[in-house]
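Deliverable D2.4 — example input (structure tokens):
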């Protein structure tokens, strides 16, 4: 294996401890480095880590010590943040879909910033969190993103003002606008386009008597998977330029909610080859490993996220493979169409590593389907 020098600490840990397979190892120093890079490139933007990407206590604690805030998607994530010592004012309840009881509990705990994208959610918040601040999420196309978020959340820009007006009328503080350009976004221009739309909404709101103060530019900052991504500074320059261009001298408070970017590149999953089968039917070489869609690699759905893969036999001749997980489920195939090539001499028992696997892996892996335990995790 020719390890990525970035993952030196992780590789040393794996070699020294030889943990049972599969497992995720996250280097906390890399998490910190990612956070610091983003703060350096976006000095005026407050970072709210989207904890769903990886809610490990070690990550929350180290980000907290750096001054990070947190975007929580459920009351359980809010409790997790409070339990590690985050102040309620450092939290945003950023899911537009919340139970009334969850809103009430968060508000009583002191959280007072909530995401909305429709009248019914605004009404719910006004019932149990009177006077709370809300920001309204508008839709983006998700173009350029490997994991788009273009359908389930957000409303058309021309509906946003009505929701904010309603919020004001029933006693809430309509504080701002949010968007998410889609996760693993590879086109910097998508942020600029969304910021331009947001600026128009700020003007429109003003005309309706609402002075907005907050722009939430969401997440989407990419990890290093198989295909190339822009440098972080390119994305951040595009964002900064767009803020200046469209808001001029009245740039509001801006917050971002990176998830994948913070945790993704900081983690490696090590797994093991269980079976290699050259199938006569179909004529393809199938490699089955001990981790699949149910064990942490669910983002391979539709082959949307394509991890970089290293094996112990890298360096020799390679050939095409179908890569699949270990469970008795037909859909537990990782890559069939994405042209993965692996060493021809790869055999059972060999180690295989999925790089940049620190986000949306362990947090998705808790089912124990087929009796396989949830992904083992180490934070070093
Ligand atoms: C998932 C999510 C994020 C994080 O997105 P990434 O692409 O992982 O950075 C941020 N904000 C909201 C509201 C989300 O739902």
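Example output (designed residues):
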């Amino acid at each position: 294996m020719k390890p990525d020098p970035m993952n030196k600490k992780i590789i040393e840990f794996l070699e020294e401890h030889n943990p049972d397979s599969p497992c995720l190892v996250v280097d906390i120093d890399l998490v910190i480095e990612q956070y610091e890079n983003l703060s350096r490139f976006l000095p005026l933007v407050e970072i709210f880590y989207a904890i769903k990407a990886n809610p490990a206590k070690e990550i929350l604690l180290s980000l907290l010590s750096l001054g990070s805030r947190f975007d929580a998607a459920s009351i359980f994530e809010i409790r997790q943040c409070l339990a590690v010592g985050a102040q309620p004012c450092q939290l945003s309840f950023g899911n537009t879909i919340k139970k009334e009881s969850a809103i009430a509990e968060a508000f009583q705990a002191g959280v007072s910033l909530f995401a909305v994208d429709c009248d019914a959610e605004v009404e719910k918040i006004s019932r149990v969190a009177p006077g709370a601040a809300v920001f309204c999420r508008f839709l983006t196309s998700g173009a350029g993103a490997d994991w788009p978020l273009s359908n389930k959340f957000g409303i058309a820009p021309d509906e946003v003002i009505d929701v904010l007006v309603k919020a004001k009328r029933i006693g809430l503080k309509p504080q701002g606008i949010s968007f998410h350009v889609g996760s693993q976004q590879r086109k910097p221009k998508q942020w600029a386009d969304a910021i331009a739309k947001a600026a128009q909404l700020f003007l429109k709101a003003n005309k309706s008597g609402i002075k907005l103060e907050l722009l939430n530019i969401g997440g989407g900052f990419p990890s290093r998977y198989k295909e190339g991504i822009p440098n972080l500074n390119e994305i951040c320059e595009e964002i900064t330029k767009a803020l200046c261009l469209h808001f001029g001298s009245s740039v509001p408070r801006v917050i971002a909610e990176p998830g994948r970017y913070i945790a993704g590149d900081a983690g490696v999953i090590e797994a093991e080859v269980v079976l290699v089968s050259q199938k006569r039917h179909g004529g393809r070489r199938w490699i089955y490993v001990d981790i699949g869609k149910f064990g942490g690699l669910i983002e391979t759905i539709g082959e949307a996220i394509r991890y970089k893969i290293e094996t112990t036999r890298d360096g020799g001749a390679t050939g095409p493979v179908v890569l699949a997980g270990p469970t008795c489920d037909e859909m537990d195939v990782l890559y069939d169409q994405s042209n993965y090539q692996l060493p021809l001499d790869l055999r059972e028992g060999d180690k295989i590593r999925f790089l940049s696997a620190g986000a949306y892996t362990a947090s998705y892996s808790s089912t124990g389907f087929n009796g396989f335990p949830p992904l083992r995790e180490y934070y070093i």
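The chain has two domains: 55-258, 265-379.
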